Amino acid sequence: MHTPAITGTGVYTPEQIITNAELVTAFNAYADRMNAANAEAIAAGEVEPMAPSSEAFIFKASGIERRHVMDKSGILDPEVMHPLLRQRNDEEPSVMAEMALDAAKAALAQAGKTAQDIDLVICAASNMERAYPAMAIEIQSLLGIEGFAFDMNVACSSATFGIQTAADMVRAGSIRAALVVNPEICSGHLEWRDRDCHFIFGDVATACVIERMDEAKGPSFEILSTRCATQFSNNIRNNNGFLRRSRPDGVADRRDMQFMQNGRKVFKEVVPMVSQHIAKHMGDTGLSGGDLKRMWLHQANKSMNDLIGKKVLGRVPEPQEQPNILQEYANTSSAGSIIAFAQNSDDMAEGDIGLICSFGAGYSVGSVLLRRHD
Ligand code: CO8
């Protein structure tokens, strides 16, 4: 058996930023247009007018201040309200592959590794831009990696489930090193015309190198233990898929083919599920909240993270103990906890213990306990 470790991380951050102010202006312009178009039906009481969105609500309810996206022009155009991405032919790198490459190269560089050192690529993300060939195999090919690759989708928990999968293979000896990449183009499957959720997501890609700890070329995070859990819920759902053309009621733009959630229920049900999951995972590993130097939690909602952090530590965490990045990136699905980890772990000291924990649709929860080695 070998000891697995995370030895490199990378984050690709799209250059374009949408502030809450820009987002609300675009949404409200869209709502005004719809209300004008439906004026008669609204006056007759047949259609509810669209209510405006507000910056103050978004910040208070979520903690989000801005988000990075691959294309803001379409999202902010009241006549479009979705990203406009250049259509590519099949010989060009696909959007997700291009996003993943950037993060993957940064992770490899930090680990001091090259493509020749990697045996496996897992593309773990909330949605794949096509059914097949696997995104992971395209990324493997673009990086010049031999071995094998596959896709995984566990929504917001994709990265932690991917880390467990790779760590188990390293431990068993079936691979020496893996690259787990999380290209999240959330802007493509968010309904920007729905004020309940139009502020929630952003785009990003993250990557981790996972390999035998004794082959690390620099500081590493030993993977002490991982744990995945799922429990079926319809409270976060996206019904898009290849069966759309078989639907008798049309195919073009049904609301349930984008991200749908009952946010309040998710909040109420997921906070206890995650707090108990972490407590049990740590207890079974012989650890308690007091042993944790840092928690890199999933980045969906600041209040959710504050509650979970308090339950796990038994006190209000100091900001550096539980860093949030959602104010800058919004929810980036599976990549959120990995951004928090990548950007807030360099200062950890030899022997410090930390926890990555993701949670989301499924429901799914994934936790990874790490120990720093210099
Ligand atoms: N502006 C102003 N008012 C608003 C707005 C808005 N934009 N939106 C809603 N309101 C109003 C509502 O209509 C409501 O009014 P009323 O009280 O009159 O009915 C009031 O504000 C309160 O609304 P909510 O109850 O919805 O507000 P909450 O305080 O519950 O906050 C949140 C909403 C922020 C969504 C919160 O519930 C939350 O964060 N919940 C948890 C969500 C979560 O963690 N989800 C995980 C999803 S991510 C995941 O698993 C990955 C999925 C795959 C990725 C998909 C990529 C697109």
From TrEMBL:
Pfam family, one: ACP_syn_III
All copies of domain Beta-ketoacyl-[acyl-carrier-protein] synthase III C-terminal, residue ranges: 285-371
Example GO biological process: secondary metabolite biosynthetic process
All copies of domain Beta-ketoacyl-[acyl-carrier-protein] synthase III N-terminal, residue ranges: 150-228
Record key words, sorted: Acyltransferase, Transferase
UniProt-listed InterPro entries: ACP_syn_III_C (IPR013747), ACP_syn_III_N (IPR013751), Thiolase-like (IPR016039)
GO MF annotation, one: 3-oxoacyl-[acyl-carrier-protein] synthase activity
Coiled coil regions, renumbered to chain: none
PANTHER family from the UniProt entry: 3-OXOACYL-[ACYL-CARRIER-PROTEIN] SYNTHASE 3, BETA-KETOACYL-[ACYL-CARRIER-PROTEIN] SYNTHASE III
UniProt protein name: Beta-ketoacyl-ACP synthase III
Organism: Antarcticimicrobium sediminis
Organism lineage: Bacteria, Pseudomonadati, Pseudomonadota, Alphaproteobacteria, Rhodobacterales
